[in-house]
Amino acid sequence: MKYILSVIITLVMTAALPQDTQKLVYADFEQLDKDKRPISAREGKIIFDAGAQNNDRKPKLAPRLLGAQGPLTQRIGFEFEIFEPNTWAEASIKIIGLKDKGRLDDWAKTLIVRAEDLSAYSAVTVDIGAAGVSQVRIRLLSEENGIDAGGAFPERYLDITNELRTYRIPISEFKQPTGDWVKKKVTTEQVMKKLTAVQVSVVKVPSKGFVVLDNIAFEK
After folding, report:
1. How far apart are CA 203 and CA 133, in angstroms?
2. pTM for the structure as a whole
3. How many CB atoms lie within 10 A of CB 67?
4. DSSP SS3 for 172
5. Residue 155 has what pLDDT?
6. Which CATH class is domain 20-219?
7. Cα 47 to the chain's mean position, in Å?
8. FRET label pair with 6: which of 72, 153, 169, 175, CA 20 to 30 Å apart?
9. Given CA atoms 78, 140, 159, 207 in this order, what sign does their dihedral have?
10. What stretches of the chain show up as alpha helix (H) in DSSP?
């Protein structure tokens, strides 16, 4: 009886605690869908992808789900190998924030994603570490929701180590890339008002290694 009463009191006290309105947990990789695949904190899909200028030498990419171990909670990652010759190539993971609306009945079975306004947040945090590379590219995406950036979304290159640690990146440091190939101009604020996903990519040619991710969040 005392145990039951204690549990009830704990539950009531927990329910009464104020929620953290200064932080939005975007993905902690603890949630799985019905097929046991990892999803974001609000049921958005997680998509692994690889692309390259030379289609005959596209990167190899193998997703990995890492279970809780010691002080570490469940994490996600991917093995990669990026080959020469390539003017550009990337191996990436895209974390979609919200549960999608399904797919269009077109030849590509296009995913219908939902956008959200996160422009009130001033920074993004991520736990990340890697072997084989010392830098990743992080992009803020707004796809299929009225922001036409021609693929040139705001990005920030992040220097990392082989130790899984937390990095805090001000949103103001994300910039649209420059160059003749950038045909559509957008601002980071425009994208944050209709954010659909966060993408982490390895773009070093050549390279081979492993990336581990955990705990992506937005902070005010």
Report:
1. 9
2. 0.87
3. 8
4. helix
5. 97
6. mainly beta
7. 9
8. 72
9. positive
10. 2-16, 188-193
